[in-house]
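Write out the 3D structure for:
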Amino acid sequence: MKAVILCGGQGTRIRDANELLPKPMLPIGGRPIVWHIMKMYAQHGVRDFVLCLGYRGWVIKEFFLNYKAMTADLTVTLGKHGAVEVIGRHDEEDWRVTLAETGEETMTGGRVAAVRKYVEGDEPFLLTYGDGVSDVDIGATIAAHRKHGKVATVTAVRPPGRFGEMLIDGGAVTEFNEKPQVSEGFINGGFFVLDGRRLWKYLGEDRATILEREPLRSLARDRELHAFPHTGFWQPMDTSREYGLLNDLWASGKAPWKSW
């Protein structure tokens, strides 16, 4: 089974964190957030990836083309016939990564349509955004998708709260929570499972198609969109504050999405 990761957006709301890197390449604990997402999938046996490139896609290509050099110790012999020795092995040696140019201005639905040739078939494929991590059980999302038989499964999550929450009883604060998850309502959390045959009539071929608008709305109208509720950890990286939060969690040694 393949996992498609949307990596082409311009990330304008987080440019102050780093103007030179595309958002999927922003590091958490020294590794790009897209690497963390791929490690999550790999823990569930998914090691065949299709990355939809757009804005500064060459930066992502450089990282994977030079993956061993970027992530391992090296011994370099200087001189006329210099040689480079990569020391040790890494857990990602069985990954297969397709780096697909899907256009700098292409929208989310258009990017998925652009990689149809890589994922179309009888087997479902996975899809998520290249800027969010979670402790969702990916294996369970796949099992749920196979059970209900719909065209699409979306992971439904509680949005992280923007403000602190106080519980008050007679003027006394009985409980204070700093930015808790919202307790009611679900939003699109990504981590989709999609039918490799039946999806395409909902997408079309227009590069301006936004997945979250007409395609998902049409699937919902046809009762072909199933929700997989996830009330555990889920965190996007849309702002510098969220970028800092994810790095703080990693530095604490308690990153909820780290299962490897």
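The first strand starts at residue 2 and ends at 7.
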